[in-house]
Amino acid sequence: MKPQLRHTLENLRYKVTALHGLTAHPDTLAGLDKTFEAALAAPVPENVQKLRKLMERARNKDAEAVSELCALRTTTIDLYVRAMSNFTAFFRSVNLKPDEQACFIHTFRNPVAVRYMGQDGGVKQVKAVRAQRPMFIDMREITTDAVGYQIRDINLGPDVAAAAQATVDLSWDMTNKVDYEAYLMMTAGKSMAKNGVFGAFNATGAPLDQTYIPNDRIVTANLPTTNDVVLTDNGTGANQSNKFRLNVCKAIIRYCEKWGNIWGAPLRPTGLILVPSIDATDLADEITPTSLIFPNALAEGLLQNYSQFTYLGVKWTLVPDVTLASGACYPVLNRPVGEVYYKPAFDDEFVETDRRNNWESRSAQKVLNFAIPEPWRVNALRITYKASS
Questions:
Q1: What is the rounded distance in angstroms from the CA atom of residue 147 to the CA atom of residue 172?
Q2: Fewest Cβ atoms closer than 10 Å to its Cβ: which of 2, 121, 167, 232?
Q3: Is the distance from CB of 143 to CB of 365 less than 8 angstroms?
Q4: What pLDDT, on the 0 to 100 scale, is given for residue 164?
Q5: Which residues, in sequence order, are CB contacts of 11 under 8 Å at separation 6+?
Q6: Are the C-beta atoms of residues 386 and 361 closer than 8 Å to each other?
Q7: Rounded Cα distance, 253 and 57, in Å
């Protein structure tokens, strides 16, 4: 064994206690030199080596390395957002350039009367007027708390795993925050939201404040008056239930069909329903297997897979959501409820490195805001299927 290494181990023998009561004694050091040499010669995966070098260059203020590392982390965060969100599924994503301003313009055109014309060619004239009102969407910043970790291990070098874990933590926190903001916008929460989307539609007042302005030929009694539907068959009597059931699917389709084609394209369910996780298995109670022969295709489907089934021409998929209270579900329709605006150019990850204390912390910020125009409220729907106690 090399004299220098032996001397070092001998000096440490009073401080080191091995397993099973053994101690590091000079007589027991034979062969340890090969163990150390093998450890030093162990190959490091190429991708880990590259990431270590990239991190070291970034900590040394190499501008190119900082940009490359930030791009890597931005991609990770964005992928996590798309993979994990639930309520952002109701919104259409719009990426803005640094100098772009988000704006909605509420407008309507007065209808023009059509009549028969006399032989003299006389016809009543009206002035075409389009009323409009712009609504500007101011962007906001949200940020995570800082996540800290040691920069390096004196034996293994830069702690790549800790940096990677910190990035994952930031990604999860940012995902959760963005999705929570979407939930608040839809349910009249605090934060960014002023009014929720669920409730009676506005059919009175100033035209630009109304949910929609129907044509004179439309029988308004055919149209839904609210997107907050409460099933009336709740209770404990015959054919009544307080559970998630097939009548929920009927109510969703009934709501969509009532609109006809007045929006230029039919409003239809996508089949995706966010259901409180405690209610997700209630559909199993709709079918009671009494024999080996299935009574119909729907019953067969529910018995095979209660979370994915076809009913009334729609393939339904139940998504258990642990953040929802029992008794109400949220179907996703084929038109967006609103838009969520991002400015990726202003998203950032802040890294504070203290080499002397072997400590580094990371935090992330994201620029965004949500907007829900009044007419788009018809694209949201909440079905309450449990009577309030």
A1: 12
A2: 121
A3: yes
A4: 65
A5: none
A6: no
A7: 58
DSSP class per residue in 53-70: HHHHHHHTT-HHHHHHHH
Give me 139's structure tokens: 């962007």
- CA pair distance 163, 151, nearest whole angstrom: 8
* Virtual torsion, Cα 62, 68, 69, 74, nearest 10 deg: 140
For residues 367 and 340, is the Cβ–Cβ distance under 8 A? no
DSSP 189-234: -STT-SS-S-SB---SSSGGGSS----TTS-GGGS-SBSEEE-S--
Element (H, E) at 329: strand 328-333
Give which of 204, 185, 205 is closest to 195, Cα–Cα.
Answer: 185
For the chain, the C-alpha Rg in angstroms (whole number) is 31
Q: How far is Cα 159 from Cα 164, in angstroms, rounded to an integer?
A: 9
What pLDDT was estimated at residue 299? 52
Q: Residue 135 has what DSSP assignment?
A: E
The whole model's pTM is what? 0.68
pLDDT at 8: 56
Write the single-letter amino acid at 272: L
Rounded-to-integer distance, Cα 367 and Cα 346, Å: 6
Helix ranges, the chain (H) = 3-11, 32-41, 46-59, 63-84, 160-186, 246-258, 297-304
Question: How far does the chain reach from its first CA to its final CA, in angstroms?
Answer: 79
pLDDT < 50: residue spans in the chain: 12-24, 79-83, 190-193, 291-294
Q: Which residue has the tokens 């991708």?
A: 47
| Residue 384 and residue 231 in contact, taking contact as beta carbons nearer than 8 Å | yes
Can you give the pLDDT at residue 207?
73
Contacts of 311 (CB under 8 A, 6+ apart): 246, 249, 298
Contacts of 310 (CB under 8 A, 6+ apart): 297, 298, 301, 316
Scanning 276-375, the segments in alpha helix (DSSP H) are 297-304
pLDDT at residue 284, as a whole number: 78
d(CA 316, CA 295): 20
Give the CA diameter of the chain. Answer: 124
Instruction: Provide φ and ψ at 54, rounded to 5°.
Output: -65, -45
Output phi, psi for 351, to 5 deg.
-120, 125
